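User: Predict structure, ligand adenosine monophosphate.
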Amino acid sequence: MKTLNDFNFENKKALIRVDFNVPLDKDFNVTDSNRIEAAKPTIIKVLEDGGSAILMSHLGRPNGERNPDMSLKHIADKVSEVVGVQVKFSEDCIGESAEKAAADLKPGEVLLLENLRFHSEETSGDQDFAEKLSKLGDVYINDAFGTAHRAHASTTIVAQFFDDSKCFGQLLAKEIEAIDKVMASGEKPVLAILGGAKVSSKITIIENILDKVDHLIVGGGMTYTFIKAKGGKVGDSICEDDKMELALEILKQAEAKGVQVHIPVDVIAADDFSNDANTQTVDVDKIPDGWQGLDAGPKTLANFKEVILKSKTILWNGPVGVFEMENFANGTISVGNFIVEATKAGAFSLVGGGDSVAAVKQFGFQDKVSYVSTGGGAMLESLEGKTLPGIAAILK
Ligand code: AMP
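Assistant: Predicted complex:
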Protein backbone atom coordinates (compact mmCIF):
# COMPACT_ATOMS: atom_id res chain seq x y z
CA MET A 1 0.00 0.00 0.00
CA LYS A 2 1.54 3.30 -1.11
CA THR A 3 1.34 5.98 1.51
CA LEU A 4 2.54 9.55 1.88
CA ASN A 5 5.90 8.52 3.27
CA ASP A 6 6.79 6.77 0.01
CA PHE A 7 6.85 10.20 -1.63
CA ASN A 8 8.97 13.30 -1.41
CA PHE A 9 6.89 16.28 -2.47
CA GLU A 10 9.72 18.73 -3.04
CA ASN A 11 8.66 21.08 -5.87
CA LYS A 12 5.61 18.92 -6.46
CA LYS A 13 2.00 20.04 -6.57
CA ALA A 14 -0.13 17.59 -4.62
CA LEU A 15 -3.80 17.40 -5.62
CA ILE A 16 -5.48 16.25 -2.41
CA ARG A 17 -9.07 15.02 -2.11
CA VAL A 18 -10.07 15.98 1.41
CA ASP A 19 -13.40 15.77 3.19
CA PHE A 20 -14.19 19.35 4.18
CA ASN A 21 -17.93 18.72 4.26
CA VAL A 22 -18.16 20.56 7.59
CA PRO A 23 -21.21 22.04 9.32
CA LEU A 24 -21.71 25.82 8.99
CA ASP A 25 -23.96 28.09 11.07
CA LYS A 26 -26.30 30.68 9.52
CA ASP A 27 -23.43 33.19 9.24
CA PHE A 28 -21.32 30.55 7.46
CA ASN A 29 -18.94 29.98 10.36
CA VAL A 30 -17.52 26.48 10.69
CA THR A 31 -19.11 24.96 13.82
CA ASP A 32 -17.05 21.75 13.90
CA SER A 33 -13.59 21.75 12.35
CA ASN A 34 -12.74 18.10 13.13
CA ARG A 35 -12.58 17.14 9.47
CA ILE A 36 -10.21 20.00 8.67
CA GLU A 37 -8.00 19.04 11.62
CA ALA A 38 -8.08 15.44 10.40
CA ALA A 39 -6.62 16.43 7.01
CA LYS A 40 -3.86 18.55 8.54
CA PRO A 41 -1.11 15.90 8.88
CA THR A 42 -1.28 15.09 5.17
CA ILE A 43 -1.18 18.74 4.12
CA ILE A 44 1.70 19.48 6.49
CA LYS A 45 3.75 16.54 5.18
CA VAL A 46 3.45 17.91 1.63
CA LEU A 47 4.38 21.44 2.69
CA GLU A 48 7.29 20.34 4.88
CA ASP A 49 8.75 18.36 1.99
CA GLY A 50 8.79 21.61 0.00
CA GLY A 51 5.69 20.95 -2.07
CA SER A 52 2.40 22.78 -2.48
CA ALA A 53 -1.12 21.53 -1.76
CA ILE A 54 -4.24 21.84 -3.89
CA LEU A 55 -7.25 20.92 -1.80
CA MET A 56 -10.50 19.72 -3.33
CA SER A 57 -13.70 18.76 -1.53
CA HIS A 58 -17.45 18.83 -1.67
CA LEU A 59 -19.68 20.71 0.75
CA GLY A 60 -23.34 19.76 1.09
CA ARG A 61 -25.45 18.65 -1.85
CA PRO A 62 -25.65 21.49 -4.39
CA ASN A 63 -26.70 18.97 -7.07
CA GLY A 64 -24.56 20.38 -9.83
CA GLU A 65 -25.67 24.01 -9.31
CA ARG A 66 -23.55 26.94 -8.14
CA ASN A 67 -25.00 27.61 -4.70
CA PRO A 68 -23.28 30.45 -2.81
CA ASP A 69 -24.46 29.03 0.52
CA MET A 70 -22.36 25.95 -0.16
CA SER A 71 -19.24 27.73 -1.35
CA LEU A 72 -16.00 26.45 0.13
CA LYS A 73 -14.80 30.03 0.38
CA HIS A 74 -16.71 30.14 3.69
CA ILE A 75 -14.22 27.73 5.18
CA ALA A 76 -10.99 29.17 3.70
CA ASP A 77 -10.17 31.18 6.85
CA LYS A 78 -10.70 28.16 9.07
CA VAL A 79 -8.43 26.05 6.85
CA SER A 80 -5.79 28.80 7.00
CA GLU A 81 -6.06 28.86 10.79
CA VAL A 82 -5.79 25.07 11.15
CA VAL A 83 -2.97 24.59 8.65
CA GLY A 84 -1.12 27.75 9.66
CA VAL A 85 -0.77 29.02 6.08
CA GLN A 86 -2.89 31.70 4.38
CA VAL A 87 -4.91 29.62 1.93
CA LYS A 88 -5.59 30.87 -1.62
CA PHE A 89 -9.02 30.25 -3.12
CA SER A 90 -10.05 29.40 -6.67
CA GLU A 91 -13.64 30.31 -7.66
CA ASP A 92 -13.93 27.13 -9.71
CA CYS A 93 -12.39 23.68 -9.35
CA ILE A 94 -11.62 23.25 -13.07
CA GLY A 95 -10.98 25.49 -16.07
CA GLU A 96 -8.64 28.39 -16.72
CA SER A 97 -8.90 30.08 -13.32
CA ALA A 98 -8.16 26.89 -11.44
CA GLU A 99 -5.34 25.95 -13.80
CA LYS A 100 -3.73 29.38 -13.48
CA ALA A 101 -4.04 29.38 -9.69
CA ALA A 102 -2.50 25.90 -9.55
CA ALA A 103 0.30 26.83 -11.96
CA ASP A 104 1.16 29.94 -9.91
CA LEU A 105 1.34 27.99 -6.66
CA LYS A 106 4.76 28.03 -5.01
CA PRO A 107 6.30 25.52 -2.59
CA GLY A 108 4.76 25.93 0.84
CA GLU A 109 1.52 27.38 -0.52
CA VAL A 110 -2.01 25.99 -0.30
CA LEU A 111 -4.85 26.41 -2.79
CA LEU A 112 -8.45 25.55 -1.94
CA LEU A 113 -10.70 24.81 -4.91
CA GLU A 114 -14.41 25.67 -5.07
CA ASN A 115 -16.98 22.98 -4.25
CA LEU A 116 -16.58 20.02 -6.61
CA ARG A 117 -20.30 19.33 -6.57
CA PHE A 118 -21.09 22.65 -8.27
CA HIS A 119 -20.47 20.42 -11.30
CA SER A 120 -22.81 17.46 -11.75
CA GLU A 121 -19.89 15.66 -13.43
CA GLU A 122 -18.33 15.15 -10.00
CA THR A 123 -20.96 12.73 -8.69
CA SER A 124 -21.56 11.13 -12.09
CA GLY A 125 -17.87 10.23 -12.19
CA ASP A 126 -17.31 11.96 -15.53
CA GLN A 127 -14.00 11.12 -17.25
CA ASP A 128 -13.42 14.54 -18.86
CA PHE A 129 -14.11 16.36 -15.65
CA ALA A 130 -11.74 14.03 -13.77
CA GLU A 131 -9.07 14.61 -16.41
CA LYS A 132 -9.43 18.38 -16.00
CA LEU A 133 -8.96 18.00 -12.24
CA SER A 134 -5.92 15.81 -12.81
CA LYS A 135 -4.18 18.57 -14.77
CA LEU A 136 -3.89 20.66 -11.62
CA GLY A 137 -1.43 18.43 -9.75
CA ASP A 138 1.64 16.22 -10.20
CA VAL A 139 0.63 13.74 -7.52
CA TYR A 140 -2.86 12.67 -6.42
CA ILE A 141 -3.57 11.98 -2.75
CA ASN A 142 -6.89 10.65 -1.53
CA ASP A 143 -7.43 11.51 2.13
CA ALA A 144 -11.24 11.46 2.17
CA PHE A 145 -12.46 8.23 3.75
CA GLY A 146 -16.02 9.56 4.09
CA THR A 147 -16.47 9.52 0.30
CA ALA A 148 -14.23 6.54 -0.54
CA HIS A 149 -17.31 4.37 -1.13
CA ARG A 150 -18.40 6.65 -3.99
CA ALA A 151 -17.02 6.31 -7.52
CA HIS A 152 -17.02 10.07 -7.99
CA ALA A 153 -14.66 11.96 -10.29
CA SER A 154 -12.45 13.34 -7.51
CA THR A 155 -12.49 10.25 -5.30
CA THR A 156 -11.97 7.50 -7.86
CA ILE A 157 -11.93 8.39 -11.56
CA VAL A 158 -9.20 11.02 -11.27
CA ALA A 159 -6.72 8.41 -9.98
CA GLN A 160 -6.42 6.77 -13.40
CA PHE A 161 -4.65 9.85 -14.75
CA PHE A 162 -1.77 9.50 -12.30
CA ASP A 163 -0.13 6.11 -13.04
CA ASP A 164 2.19 5.61 -10.06
CA SER A 165 1.98 9.16 -8.72
CA LYS A 166 -0.88 8.54 -6.33
CA CYS A 167 -1.26 7.47 -2.74
CA PHE A 168 -3.43 7.46 0.36
CA GLY A 169 -3.25 10.37 2.75
CA GLN A 170 -2.56 9.74 6.42
CA LEU A 171 -6.19 9.77 7.48
CA LEU A 172 -7.31 7.31 4.82
CA ALA A 173 -4.31 5.06 5.52
CA LYS A 174 -5.26 4.99 9.22
CA GLU A 175 -8.84 4.00 8.37
CA ILE A 176 -7.61 1.20 6.11
CA GLU A 177 -5.21 -0.09 8.76
CA ALA A 178 -7.92 -0.02 11.44
CA ILE A 179 -10.36 -1.97 9.28
CA ASP A 180 -7.62 -4.42 8.33
CA LYS A 181 -6.83 -5.08 11.99
CA VAL A 182 -10.41 -6.06 12.69
CA MET A 183 -11.08 -7.96 9.48
CA ALA A 184 -7.76 -9.67 8.84
CA SER A 185 -4.77 -9.13 11.04
CA GLY A 186 -6.02 -8.44 14.56
CA GLU A 187 -4.84 -10.31 17.62
CA LYS A 188 -7.33 -12.97 18.84
CA PRO A 189 -9.85 -13.21 20.35
CA VAL A 190 -11.61 -10.86 17.94
CA LEU A 191 -14.98 -9.48 19.03
CA ALA A 192 -17.64 -7.59 17.09
CA ILE A 193 -20.33 -5.74 19.01
CA LEU A 194 -23.26 -5.06 16.71
CA GLY A 195 -26.16 -3.01 17.98
CA GLY A 196 -28.57 -0.52 16.51
CA ALA A 197 -32.21 -0.71 15.62
CA LYS A 198 -32.70 -3.37 12.97
CA VAL A 199 -31.37 -6.72 11.84
CA SER A 200 -32.17 -5.82 8.23
CA SER A 201 -29.69 -2.92 8.11
CA LYS A 202 -26.87 -4.99 9.64
CA ILE A 203 -27.41 -8.34 8.00
CA THR A 204 -24.68 -8.08 5.36
CA ILE A 205 -22.20 -6.99 8.03
CA ILE A 206 -23.14 -9.88 10.30
CA GLU A 207 -22.79 -12.41 7.50
CA ASN A 208 -19.40 -11.04 6.45
CA ILE A 209 -18.07 -10.70 9.96
CA LEU A 210 -18.84 -14.28 11.03
CA ASP A 211 -15.76 -15.39 9.11
CA LYS A 212 -13.52 -12.93 10.95
CA VAL A 213 -14.51 -12.98 14.61
CA ASP A 214 -14.38 -15.33 17.59
CA HIS A 215 -17.18 -13.59 19.50
CA LEU A 216 -20.23 -11.65 18.39
CA ILE A 217 -22.30 -9.52 20.74
CA VAL A 218 -25.75 -8.72 19.41
CA GLY A 219 -27.44 -5.83 21.20
CA GLY A 220 -29.95 -3.00 20.83
CA GLY A 221 -33.16 -3.34 18.89
CA MET A 222 -31.82 -6.29 16.89
CA THR A 223 -31.99 -8.44 20.02
CA TYR A 224 -35.74 -8.95 19.90
CA THR A 225 -35.86 -10.47 16.43
CA PHE A 226 -33.40 -13.11 17.65
CA ILE A 227 -35.25 -13.70 20.93
CA LYS A 228 -38.67 -14.02 19.31
CA ALA A 229 -37.23 -16.33 16.67
CA LYS A 230 -35.99 -18.57 19.51
CA GLY A 231 -39.50 -18.68 20.98
CA GLY A 232 -39.22 -15.87 23.56
CA LYS A 233 -41.88 -13.25 24.40
CA VAL A 234 -40.71 -9.77 23.42
CA GLY A 235 -43.86 -7.78 24.23
CA ASP A 236 -43.99 -4.57 22.22
CA SER A 237 -40.22 -4.45 21.55
CA ILE A 238 -39.00 -3.54 18.07
CA CYS A 239 -38.97 -6.76 16.07
CA GLU A 240 -38.73 -7.72 12.42
CA ASP A 241 -40.93 -10.78 12.08
CA ASP A 242 -39.88 -11.30 8.48
CA LYS A 243 -36.24 -11.56 9.58
CA MET A 244 -36.76 -14.23 12.24
CA GLU A 245 -35.78 -17.09 9.97
CA LEU A 246 -32.70 -15.19 8.96
CA ALA A 247 -31.82 -14.68 12.63
CA LEU A 248 -32.00 -18.43 13.25
CA GLU A 249 -29.90 -19.01 10.14
CA ILE A 250 -27.26 -16.59 11.46
CA LEU A 251 -27.12 -18.44 14.77
CA LYS A 252 -26.69 -21.73 12.91
CA GLN A 253 -23.94 -20.31 10.72
CA ALA A 254 -22.19 -18.86 13.77
CA GLU A 255 -22.22 -22.23 15.48
CA ALA A 256 -20.85 -23.95 12.39
CA LYS A 257 -18.07 -21.39 12.20
CA GLY A 258 -17.22 -21.62 15.88
CA VAL A 259 -18.30 -18.05 16.65
CA GLN A 260 -19.70 -17.54 20.13
CA VAL A 261 -22.79 -15.32 20.00
CA HIS A 262 -23.76 -13.30 23.07
CA ILE A 263 -27.33 -12.00 23.19
CA PRO A 264 -28.89 -10.03 26.08
CA VAL A 265 -30.43 -12.13 28.84
CA ASP A 266 -32.23 -9.29 30.62
CA VAL A 267 -33.40 -5.84 29.58
CA ILE A 268 -34.73 -2.56 30.89
CA ALA A 269 -38.30 -2.62 29.61
CA ALA A 270 -40.47 0.47 29.36
CA ASP A 271 -44.24 0.93 29.04
CA ASP A 272 -43.73 3.61 26.36
CA PHE A 273 -41.02 4.69 23.89
CA SER A 274 -40.23 7.70 26.05
CA ASN A 275 -37.60 8.81 28.53
CA ASP A 276 -40.34 9.30 31.13
CA ALA A 277 -41.85 5.84 30.75
CA ASN A 278 -42.19 3.47 33.70
CA THR A 279 -39.47 0.83 33.66
CA GLN A 280 -38.75 -2.63 34.98
CA THR A 281 -35.87 -5.07 34.56
CA VAL A 282 -37.08 -8.33 33.04
CA ASP A 283 -35.72 -11.46 31.40
CA VAL A 284 -35.31 -10.76 27.71
CA ASP A 285 -37.65 -13.61 26.72
CA LYS A 286 -40.43 -12.72 29.18
CA ILE A 287 -41.28 -9.13 28.28
CA PRO A 288 -44.95 -8.49 29.12
CA ASP A 289 -47.33 -7.17 26.48
CA GLY A 290 -47.43 -3.37 26.54
CA TRP A 291 -43.71 -3.23 27.46
CA GLN A 292 -40.69 -2.89 25.20
CA GLY A 293 -36.99 -3.49 25.80
CA LEU A 294 -35.05 -0.24 25.44
CA ASP A 295 -31.72 -1.00 27.11
CA ALA A 296 -29.48 -3.84 28.23
CA GLY A 297 -30.07 -5.14 31.76
CA PRO A 298 -27.49 -5.71 34.55
CA LYS A 299 -26.92 -9.45 33.95
CA THR A 300 -26.46 -8.76 30.24
CA LEU A 301 -23.91 -6.05 30.95
CA ALA A 302 -21.99 -8.36 33.28
CA ASN A 303 -21.84 -10.94 30.46
CA PHE A 304 -20.81 -8.32 27.91
CA LYS A 305 -18.11 -7.07 30.26
CA GLU A 306 -16.57 -10.50 30.58
CA VAL A 307 -16.42 -10.99 26.81
CA ILE A 308 -15.13 -7.49 26.10
CA LEU A 309 -12.37 -7.68 28.70
CA LYS A 310 -11.01 -10.93 27.34
CA SER A 311 -10.95 -9.71 23.72
CA LYS A 312 -7.80 -8.38 22.07
CA THR A 313 -9.43 -6.87 19.00
CA ILE A 314 -12.82 -5.15 19.25
CA LEU A 315 -15.15 -3.65 16.68
CA TRP A 316 -18.13 -1.64 17.90
CA ASN A 317 -20.94 -0.74 15.56
CA GLY A 318 -24.30 0.34 16.91
CA PRO A 319 -25.60 1.26 20.38
CA VAL A 320 -27.01 -1.42 22.70
CA GLY A 321 -29.96 0.70 23.78
CA VAL A 322 -31.85 3.87 22.98
CA PHE A 323 -28.91 5.99 24.15
CA GLU A 324 -30.51 9.23 22.94
CA MET A 325 -32.82 8.96 25.98
CA GLU A 326 -30.95 9.46 29.23
CA ASN A 327 -32.79 6.71 31.07
CA PHE A 328 -31.81 4.14 28.43
CA ALA A 329 -28.22 5.19 27.84
CA ASN A 330 -26.67 3.15 30.65
CA GLY A 331 -26.04 0.04 28.52
CA THR A 332 -24.30 1.96 25.76
CA ILE A 333 -22.23 3.97 28.27
CA SER A 334 -21.27 0.76 30.08
CA VAL A 335 -20.21 -0.96 26.86
CA GLY A 336 -18.13 2.13 26.06
CA ASN A 337 -16.48 1.93 29.49
CA PHE A 338 -15.71 -1.79 29.09
CA ILE A 339 -14.13 -1.11 25.70
CA VAL A 340 -12.04 1.69 27.20
CA GLU A 341 -10.92 -0.69 29.95
CA ALA A 342 -10.01 -3.38 27.41
CA THR A 343 -8.13 -0.80 25.34
CA LYS A 344 -6.12 0.30 28.38
CA ALA A 345 -5.21 -3.35 28.91
CA GLY A 346 -3.81 -3.54 25.37
CA ALA A 347 -6.74 -4.40 23.10
CA PHE A 348 -7.20 -2.69 19.75
CA SER A 349 -10.66 -1.07 19.54
CA LEU A 350 -12.34 0.37 16.49
CA VAL A 351 -15.63 2.25 16.69
CA GLY A 352 -17.25 2.84 13.36
CA GLY A 353 -20.33 3.30 11.30
CA GLY A 354 -23.29 5.43 12.29
CA ASP A 355 -24.71 5.91 15.73
CA SER A 356 -22.02 4.30 17.85
CA VAL A 357 -19.68 7.09 16.70
CA ALA A 358 -22.26 9.66 17.86
CA ALA A 359 -22.57 7.81 21.18
CA VAL A 360 -18.80 7.60 21.66
CA LYS A 361 -18.45 11.34 21.07
CA GLN A 362 -21.45 12.24 23.22
CA PHE A 363 -20.10 10.25 26.17
CA GLY A 364 -16.47 11.35 25.74
CA PHE A 365 -14.86 8.02 24.79
CA GLN A 366 -13.31 9.10 21.51
CA ASP A 367 -9.78 9.61 22.82
CA LYS A 368 -9.89 6.47 24.95
CA VAL A 369 -10.50 3.90 22.21
CA SER A 370 -7.90 3.00 19.59
CA TYR A 371 -9.70 4.46 16.59
CA VAL A 372 -12.98 6.19 15.78
CA SER A 373 -13.81 6.03 12.11
CA THR A 374 -14.58 9.26 10.23
CA GLY A 375 -16.78 7.65 7.59
CA GLY A 376 -20.29 6.32 8.21
CA GLY A 377 -21.30 4.76 4.90
CA ALA A 378 -17.72 3.99 3.90
CA MET A 379 -17.13 2.11 7.16
CA LEU A 380 -20.37 0.15 6.85
CA GLU A 381 -19.51 -0.91 3.31
CA SER A 382 -16.00 -1.93 4.42
CA LEU A 383 -17.46 -4.07 7.19
CA GLU A 384 -19.78 -5.64 4.64
CA GLY A 385 -16.62 -6.81 2.88
CA LYS A 386 -16.90 -4.50 -0.13
CA THR A 387 -13.80 -3.02 -1.72
CA LEU A 388 -14.35 0.73 -1.78
CA PRO A 389 -13.86 2.26 -5.25
CA GLY A 390 -11.77 5.15 -3.87
CA ILE A 391 -9.36 2.69 -2.28
CA ALA A 392 -9.26 0.33 -5.26
CA ALA A 393 -8.42 3.26 -7.57
CA ILE A 394 -5.22 4.02 -5.65
CA LEU A 395 -4.16 0.38 -5.50
CA LYS A 396 -4.64 -0.16 -9.25
P1 AMP B 1 -28.24 2.09 13.80
O1 AMP B 1 -28.30 3.34 13.00
O2 AMP B 1 -28.72 0.87 13.08
O3 AMP B 1 -26.90 1.90 14.47
O4 AMP B 1 -29.35 2.25 14.93
C1 AMP B 1 -29.18 3.16 15.96
C2 AMP B 1 -30.48 3.38 16.65
O5 AMP B 1 -30.93 2.20 17.24
C3 AMP B 1 -30.36 4.40 17.74
O6 AMP B 1 -31.06 5.54 17.37
C4 AMP B 1 -31.00 3.71 18.95
O7 AMP B 1 -31.88 4.54 19.63
C5 AMP B 1 -31.76 2.57 18.32
N1 AMP B 1 -31.97 1.48 19.27
C6 AMP B 1 -31.07 0.85 20.02
N2 AMP B 1 -31.66 -0.04 20.83
C7 AMP B 1 -32.99 0.03 20.61
C8 AMP B 1 -34.14 -0.63 21.15
N3 AMP B 1 -34.02 -1.55 22.11
N4 AMP B 1 -35.33 -0.29 20.68
C9 AMP B 1 -35.46 0.63 19.72
N5 AMP B 1 -34.41 1.30 19.17
C10 AMP B 1 -33.19 0.99 19.59
